[in-house]
Every structure is written in C-alpha cells, then in structure tokens.
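In the previous chapter we treated chains in isolation. Here, by contrast, the input contains two separate entities that must be folded as one system, with a combined length of 969 residues.
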Amino acid sequence: LGGICGLVAAIGQAMLSAAPPEVVPAPKQQASPYTGAIGCAAAACHNGGGHDGRPGNEYTTWAKDPHAKAYSVLLNEQSQNISRNLHRSMPAHNDALCLACHATPAPSDDPGAVASGVGCESCHGPARDWRAIHYQPAWKALSAAEKAKYGMADTKDLVARAQKCVECHVGTPNQEVNHDLIAAGHPRLAFEYAGFLGAYPHKHWMREQEPHGAEFEARAWEIGQLVSARAAAELLRSRAEKASVWPELAEYGCFGCHHDLKEDANAWRKTRRFADLQAGSLPWGAWYFALPEYAGLSKDGAADIAALTKLMAKPYPPTNEVAAAATRVRDALDVALKTAADPNRPAITRAETLDRLNRLIADGQKPDEVGDWEHAIQRYLAIAAHAQCLGDMDASSRTPDRRAALLAMRNELAFPNEPRRFDSPAAFSLAKFRQLLNDVDQSFAPKR
Amino acid sequence: MAVVTSRALVLTLGSAAIFAAALTGRGHGQATLPPALANAKAQDRISGADNCIRCHKEPLPADKLPGGATEFLRMDESTIWDTQDMHKKAFEALSTPLGKQMGQILKTDVTRDVRCLTCHAVDLMPEKKLSAKVADEFYTPYGVGCEACHGFSREWLRSHAIKSWREKDPAEKEKEGLWDMRDPRRRAERCTSCHIGNESEGKFVTHEMYAAGHPPLPPFEAMSFSRDQKMHYKLSKDLPYLAELAKQDPEKCWRLFHFRGEDVESQVARQVAVGAVMNLRAAAKLLAEKSAAIDPNKEALDLAHFDCYACHHDLQSPSWRQARGYVGVPGRPQIRPGVALFGKLVADHAAAALNADESSPLRKFGDSFNTITSAFDARPFGEPAKVAEAAKAVVAWCDEVLKELDKVRYNREQTAKLMKLFVDAGLAPAEGKSNPWLDSDAAQQLVWSVEALRSELEGPDGPMAQTLDTLKSKLPREVRDTSKTDFLGTPQTLGARLKRLYEFTPEELHAAFGKLAGMAK
C-alpha cells in the first residue's frame, strides 16, 4: 500500500509535529501493542447489551458480526480440508497463513485472545496506548491524526476505513488469498466496499454517524472502487515482482475458466475490454477493474488498465513488464483517489449522481460492454449505490417500482442454490441481465 | 459388374515390384512414407478411398468359399466405413455451422487452414513441418480416408491383393507404406496422433481452437473407438485363416498378425492394455516436444495440454473435487488424469501377472510419473524445462512397459484381473483415502475399458452389462450411438455430451462399480 500509505503518512507527519496535549501520556513501548477485545467489553463501555449499533453497544453488536467468528471458522471441516489439501504442517487455527486475516494479533500475555476472531483492534488500531485514555475529554479533543500517533485508526475517514478493509478483503503482499488457497477450498475474495457496507450485518454504528451526509453512498462507492482497485494493482505488482507463484491465477476472472462447457458458452464472453485478446486467453482483472473509470480514473489510467489486461492475457505474462504496468495503474488510481478524497472537493450534487447512474445504465445496455457475471454484478452494485444515494438526497425518488427492479436484478445475479449450492453464476444469462437493466432504466424514467 | 472388372484389372497388373526397404528418416511410429514416394508430388502419393472401395465394397461369391478372402478379412470394409464411420465426415465437419463459427473467431478459413487439415483430411506431405505445409497438399474428398490410417497405397495397392502378401513380414509391408494396423501398438499410435496429438505431424488442438468452439477431445480408448465407428474389421479370432494359423504356428501368427489364438489371449484385452499405455506415451511425447520448445520466461505450455475439467466446471459447495483431493498442489492443473491412471493400472496388472520384482519398469510408474506431477506443481502450468525432462522419461518408461506387455498373456484369467483393477479404480475410496485421479473423463474411460473387457468375459450381454447400463445417462458404454447413421456431430449431440460431463459426480460411478466389484470376484 506504499502510495496511499505514503499519502496518509505525509499528512500525518505534518500534524504530528505539533506536541500532543500534556494530559495524554506519551505512547509506551511494549512487546505487543494489542490488548484484546475483552478490554472493550465492559458493560459500562461498549457492551451495554442493547440494540444493534446504538452507542455503548458496539461490542454487544460486534459479537453477532461475522468478524467475531473469523477464528472459529478455522476449526470447522472446510478449514481442515483446506489445510489438508494444501499439505500444511499445522491445523488452520495455528497457521500464521490463516491467522493473518482470521484473528486480531493477540496481546503477548494472552495468546488465546486470537479466539475472538477479527476484533476491535483489527480495524480501530492496537489499543495498548489509548485504551485507558480514549474516554477522557482531553482525548476527544484530539484530531484524528493525533489519535493515530497512539495507534487509533480513523474509521470515519472513508479512505482510511476502506484501506483497512482491503488489507484482508483484497489482500496485501503479505496477506493474500491466492489461487492455491482457493482451489483448496477457501472462498474467492470479491470485495466491493459500498456493497459490503450496505450488506454488513449487525453494524455496530449508526447510519447518522457516517460522514458526508446524503452523499455517503456515492462517495463510499467511488472510494471503494479506487481503493480496492488500487490494492489489487499493488498486489499484482508484488506478485509479479516476487513471481514465487506465477502466473497467479487468482488475478483472473474466476468464471473465465470456471464454467461448465456448454455448446453456447462462448456466446457471452467477448466484450470491448477483452475483444482484442486471443480466444481462450485468460481475462485479467474482471472484478476490480471493470468500473474504476466511472469513479474518476483518468483516460490514461484506463489505457494503462487495457495495456495490463493484454499483458496478463499472455500465456506466461512477462513479470517485469507486468510489475511496471501494475505500478502505472496503481499510481493512476492514487491520483484519482487524491482527487476523490480531497477535503476541499465540492459536494456531490443530485444531478451529478443522477448523471453517473444514467451512464452506468446506458453503457451497460451497449452490446459489447458487459460480457460476464463479474462485470454485471459490479454494475448492479454501482447502480444500487447510486440509487440509494438519490433516495438519501431526495426520499421521494424511492419508489416501489425501482426497488422491485433492483431486487429482480439482484435475484437474477445471485448464484443458484438448486439443485446444489453453486459458487458460480451457473445460470447467468446476458440477455436476461440486459432486460433487467432495461427495467431498472424504466423505473427511473418518470423521475429523471 | 464393375467391381469384378476393376478388381480383375488390379490383380492382372499385380506383379508389383517390391521396393527396397528404407524409411524416410522419420522412424517407426510416425506417418511413414515408402522411399519410392519420397520424391513424388503430393497428388501422386495417394490412391484415394474410391479406389479401395472397388474391392472392399462387398465380398464376391468366390470370397466366401473355403479358402476365400473372407477367411482373412471382411471385404466390405469400405462400405462400413462409407456408411458408418465418422472419419469419413472429418473434412465435412469443417463446413458445419460450428466449423464456420470457429473460422470467424480464429479469423481463418478452417477448410484451408493446415492446422485443421492435419487431422480433418489426409496429409499428403507428412514429412513437412507444420509451418511448411500448404492446404493444396492435403487430400480432402473423403475426410480421414483409408490411407490416413493404412498408409499411402501406391506401392502396395496391387501386391496386397495377392494371397502371398499375407506371408510378408509387417516390417516389410511398412517399408512399402502399409502401416501395420493389426499391431495394437502401431494402431494406437496412429489413432492417438490425432485423438491426443502429435507434434512432428503438426496435429494439435490448441486451447484457442477449443475456445473458438472445437469440441473437447474425449478420453481415448482405442478398442471402444474402433468398435463403435462401427468396426470395419473382424477380430482375429473370427477370421478362420488366423484362428487356424494360431493353432498351427502360433509364433508365426504372433509375428505376422499379433495374434496368439483365442485360447491363449484376448486380442481385445491386449488392445485395451496396449492402447492405455500408448495414450500415456502419446500425451507425454507431445508434452515433451512442446515444452522443450518453450522459453520458460516468456511462454507457458498451451492450456490444451491440461485436464480441461480441472478448470472448466461450475463451482459448487460442497465440492466433490475438493472432497476427492488433488494429484498435486490444488489449483495447479495437471495433465488429463485418465491418461496417467490407465497407464498405471495396466502396468500394475502386468507386474502382478508376470510376478515382476521391484526392479521391473512395471513397478516404477510412481518414480516416473511423480516427476511430471512435481514439474507441474513447480509453477502454475508447469516449469517447462522440468516438464520436458519428466515427460521424456515417461515416454521411455512407456516403451519399457510396452516390451513387458508382450510377455503377458491376456487370457481369460488375466483379462478378468485387468478388469478387476479397472473396476476397483472406480470404487469409493476407503475412509481417509482419496482418489485424485477420478474425474468425468477418467470415469468415462473406465466404463469403456470395463465394457471392452467385460464383453470378452461374459459376451454381448450379461449382468455386468446391465450394471454398466445403470450409468447409461451419464457414462454410456458406447462411444457413440451406433444406431444412428447420421453420424456428423451436431450442436445437439455435442450439447448432450457436454451435459453428461458436467453433470458427473462420482457417487453413481462408485455405486455401479461397487456392484461390478462383487460380480468380478
């Protein structure tokens, strides 16, 4: 995450040059900066036992959150199978490869704390230096950058929050889900920030606490696109540079290869983005690189993505060239991200939101734009986020028709559950998707 | 009768000279040319299937008399091939809607593209490299016609019709250009040159071709494939001349016709066994030659070398593949598992039959094959130099094993034992064990191989046939529906085949093979 960390660090450095208020003791140096989730769980603090998301009930709510089960899933049969298939020398729940994302690092005096899964400190930062003071009035007066010096992460900053999420949900050079792991039985990663936030069960915060008011959904979508693609480009760069496993098949659209061979299967895989590639070559970046252009990536950046797509379609993608091209893509995304996250950026208007929504729909109806399920669902999530944002800006734009049209599209894109549970779009039909896109379009027509 | 006249003419002119023996430097086991044709123009090399049918249309009354031709061959081979055999349609297939679609995607005319013609027509200049081949030097009128498998007949067309030709050594016939299709090894080598691939003959279905629509090559089983074309020859045991010769002079009968007599061994079982090893040999040879030509820092093996269904399946939970386990590192495709599995089973059987000790090549499948597995594990799609070396070693292993197979007598007892090994390979693995070799391709080949051996043991029908038929909708006993004479593939037949493949799960196979195991004891 060099580029973005660099950006954030530069801002942080400037602010840190001011001395912290004297009432806050200076950070201590101990072996582990982590204290464990249990410290947050006092009834009077974050474990009030009340309703989901209400202040004072954060821990109570989090305990129902899938992150709380991140460690315990390592004990189940699926995890045991993954370890066996990978010929690992230790069970998953002891395996650093797994624990990197399935648990918060434990405090040195309590190694068993990993059992709490992905706890408070994974996202809010290690609490050793702020746990005892973060409820004091003087702490609350500190800026986010000052708090960061103590290790607390600024989760109200959408960029910083997204960067936290993507560490596990996209991957970093040091913690990644590669194709070996997926083939052994680990679910593939397909992160979409706005969509994940929208679907996050048992959120331990309130919608009112989110930044950016009614613009929140549009901003979250934009930032999510750029941060996720940025993380993916950086991951590719490091994979190409190390080339310890190369080509890395997790870089490609899963369903480019993973589809049953049917006599009409090739009918839906040729699109503008992959048109120049040899038949049967692997489609790179189907998920993270479908839409960043709509989130502010420059034309040059889009051309860099096209060039990288071509390189990655080679039978043995040249590692040096890929690393260089991925760096260009990463840097172009950084530029876009800087603009998107500029604190002086004017408000996103309803007209702008509507315009982007219209483009997402109209482009999706072009014959050579959407060709695979990954692109289709990225477009659906983008449309849903912008429709939500319009509703937040103007409640009257929420109509039953629109909701029904979006739900129909979501249901169509969901993986089939019959006759068995599929983890791939076994029934995806491009014609059906286009028809549903038309229905969504119609649902907006009277209000536009 | 035109047939009589033309045959009479051939026989009259049948004092053909026998040419000196020398092959054209390509070695046994390829599409060889008789020296006399080495400098012939492409068009002057082939006689054409329409020439063969002048005699091989139907037996004449005299052919059916004692001592007549039908004691040695059918005499209606051409008719069967003409009306029943898919090879006849090989060139025509290029002009179907699917052929046209492939042409559009590949931006080529598939009826003129030499990469297609090497398998869909008769290559008149087999000695030329793929890059030097031209469309006009292919013979297309009858698709994969007689001389595609039997060799160019210019030199032996007349002489082979004389009775004394039978006594000629097959090696001598090869020198005149008649390929020894009675030799199970030579036959499998010719079949696999297209049905698996052959680098030096320019025969290779690339992944790009598959992606453009070429149907997936099915797993190959030499015996079943030739049986279901339908078979345009008789098994040796059904030819009185050979049956008698095997009794009178078994050594000669083996040397000339690769037949030891029905009581000594089953020709079918030998073909199944030899064919399985030849499949592995062909796949390994192709792999060795292709991977040796690769710059490991710039290129990777064509995806067509790999097990199609390692990648091409809809993902499901729970996944029977993940439960089954993997040959190597999960997510790093290996070659088609059936190819390896059958080589191993045939060697295992021969090792037991010959009571081979640990130093025998028959006991060294693992040593040989594991190097290929680890070459493919070294990086996704394999480390080319390691693959080349390992694959070459597997070819050498196959050659050793083939020599050993000559020592085996595939009598009734050994046929049953070989079948038992095939049946056991389709059983559910014991608790805590896995069977990473088993996929839909391997399962289909298991059914075909068991069917071939079963029919030798229990005849056309019997309890084992009925048990196999419980798998009919997914894993049919027949390679194709032989009741249909419209044998050019259609989108419907292809769709049905692909559907059977993707609907495959091992449970049904395990259940049916469980029953077979009970019967096969």
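Residues 267-292 of chain B form the longest helix (26 residues). The longest strand of chain B covers residues 122-123. Compare these points with the single-chain example from earlier in the chapter.
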